[in-house]
Amino acid sequence: MIRPAKALRRTLAGLALCLAAGPVLAACETTEFEGQPFTACTALAGDDLRLFLNDAEGQLLGSFARVEAALEPQAQRLVFAMNAGMFHPDRRPVGLYIEDQTEAAGIVTREGPGNFGMLPNGVFCVLPEGFAVFESRAFAEAPPECRFATQSGPMLVIDGALHPRFLPDSTSLFLRNGVGVSEDGQRAVLVISDAPVSFHHFARFFRDALDLPQALYLDGNISRLYAPEIGREDWGFPMGPIIGLVAPDS
């Protein structure tokens, strides 16, 4: 059954309150919006949301299993994870990539081919006090101090408006994943479509169902989710950047 947008917002707001009240146990929920299934995973300011690319020896991680293996000696685990941006054939990030305050790839502000170059594109940033999605050129003019950051494109929602190039009747349908941020920057929601959808439909899920004024597309077609608490462990070819919520392995 399709849930009204307000009911969906109440459900996800309740999930966020549960997370704020105690240790993170189940941060992901699957629901429907306008007849299509989506899974949304929530992180709150203060949660340990990280980006992963290479291991301590500089070798590509590339999979959820290898990230889990890298966390195990630290007595930590992944609560959820998904692919975190576009990458070159050798799995290097296409645009800006910051991990543990270290910039591994620079920002790209020029227009270009493909989804990444469909301006405006943007940067998802994990700040010391919360989260933000910045338009890429604004980020380049005044870079904030991101603990972690990944650039991708296009922007899905920009100050509450959909990207101007999205068409409501588009027939370009793919699995897609992205990230949105609440107005106060205290909540980041990572979303994957569980069926092929258009950009317009995907962006409206962030804006109309989740009430998120800023959202960024991460990738499509190769999109994958790891969320063991809901029985989800997607697999496929090696990925580039991975974003994941980390918790103590207790």
Provide a descriptive summary of the structure in words:
- Helix content is 17%, strand content 36%.
- It has helices spanning 5-21, 64-71, 136-141, 199-209, and strands spanning 28-33, 36-44, 48-52, 76-83, 97-99, 102-105, 122-127, 130-135, 148-152, 155-158, 161-162, 176-181, 187-193, 214-220, 225-227, 232-233, 242-248.
- The protein has a 7-stranded antiparallel beta sheet.
- With 250 residues, it is α+β, with helices and mostly antiparallel strands.
- The chain contains 4 helices and 17 strands.
- Residues 1-26 have low confidence and may be disordered.
Task: Summarize this structure as a short list of keywords or feature phrases.
17% helix; five-stranded antiparallel β-sheet; alpha+beta; disordered N terminus; 4 helices
- Number-wise, the strands total 17
Strand count, sense and barrel status of the largest sheet are: 7 strands, antiparallel
> In which range does the helix fraction lie?
10-25%
The total count of helices amounts to 4
End-to-end gap = 36 Å
Which residue ranges are poorly predicted, with pLDDT under 50 across at least 5 consecutive positions?
1-26
Strand order of the largest sheet: 1-2-13-12-14-10-11
Strand percent estimate: 35-45%
Which whole number gives the mean pLDDT? 91
Order of SSEs: HEEEHEEEEEHEEEEEHEEEE
User: How much is the radius of gyration in Å?
Assistant: 17 Å
